[in-house]
Amino acid sequence: MFELNSKMNDERIEEIGENHVATSAKTPLRADAFAISDEEKINRIQESVKDILHTLGMDLEDDSIQGTPKRVAKAFVNELFMGLNPANMPSASTFDNNYNYGEMLVEKNIVVYSTCEHHLLPIIGRAHVAYISNGKVIGLSKMNRIVEYFAKRPQVQERLTMQVVQAMQEALGTEDVACVIDAKHLCVNSRGIKDIESSTVTSEFGGKFKEKETKKEFLQYLQMDTHF
Ligand SMILES: Nc1nc2c(ncn2[C@@H]2O[C@H](COP(=O)(O)OP(=O)(O)OP(=O)(O)O)[C@@H](O)[C@H]2O)c(=O)[nH]1
Ligand SMILES: [Zn+2]
């Protein structure tokens, strides 16, 4: 039976949110990060984007770009950085492992669209998340949603990987969670060194996934071709 999580956001933060992310993996937020509404954030960011475009010499009266500051502000607050708002945290529905499935479960090829916090340029890749049940099972899509929630922040890939694992550990009540992310950083691919070929792999292995055989099994599943 699904125990749909109907708790208030604050309690959900207690369950899978930032409060359970180790200090080293926390997104560096100011204490007053939630002091203003999303609407107010959009208004303020809109003015900042106007300033940037104006400084670059763009004519903000031009038909094509007069709506750009608002579009960018909405994209930042509602989409690209929606994971900074705990109200957007997915509820991690878990249910009892009644069928006593005892092997690992791997959710492969979760698409990652994130934003590099150093250059505010896209990070695009795939996350692979695995866990071994300790009595609780999580809805498959909730793993994709947890990845999405933490991806939609200014990020470094290492922190994103750790946040996904820690949120899953909290939701499932087990250390036995792993995550591998393979992603391209546009700050590396399209500017700076401009290496379009390289990608970045990060991993975090908790509990049994630190053991050689379990880690190996997980990584082998990632090699499997899926033909559907
Ligand atoms: N560890 C880590 N580094 C990242 C990530 N995303 C971007 N970076 C790196 O952050 C570094 C920032 O270095 P800086 O020297 O301050 O920035 P920069 O002058 O723009 O560096 P270049 O990209 O080498 O031109 C760069 O080397 C980026 O490649 C990430 O997710 N993890
Ligand atoms: Zn970058």
Description:
Helices cover 36% and strands 21% of the residues. The radius of gyration is 20 Å and the shape is globular. Strands 6-3-4-7-8 form a five-stranded mixed sheet. It has 228 residues and is of the alpha+beta class. It contains seven helices and eight strands. The structure holds guanosine-5'-triphosphate and zinc ion (ZN). GO terms for molecular function: GTP cyclohydrolase I activity. Homopolymer. Residues 45-222 form the GTP cyclohydrolase I domain. Its EC number is 3.5.4.16. InterPro entries: GTP-CH-I_C/QueF (IPR043133), GTP-CH-I_N (IPR043134), GTP_CycHdrlase_I (IPR001474), GTP_CycHdrlase_I_CS (IPR018234), GTP_CycHdrlase_I_dom (IPR020602).
- Please outline the major beta sheet: 5 strands, mixed
Low-confidence stretches: 1-16
Q: How many helices does DSSP assign?
A: 7
Q: What oligomeric state do these chains adopt? A: single chain
- Total beta-strand segments: 8
User: In one word, what is the shape?
Assistant: globular
* Helix proportion: 25-40%
Order of helices and strands: EHHHEEEEHEHEHEH
User: How big a fraction of the residues is strand?
Assistant: 15-25%
Distance separating the two termini: 29 Å
* Protein structure class: alpha+beta
Instruction: Kindly report the spatial arrangement of strands forming the biggest sheet.
Output: 6-3-4-7-8
Indicate the mean pLDDT: 91
Rg, rounded, reads: 20 Å
Q: Bound compounds, please?
A: guanosine-5'-triphosphate, zinc ion
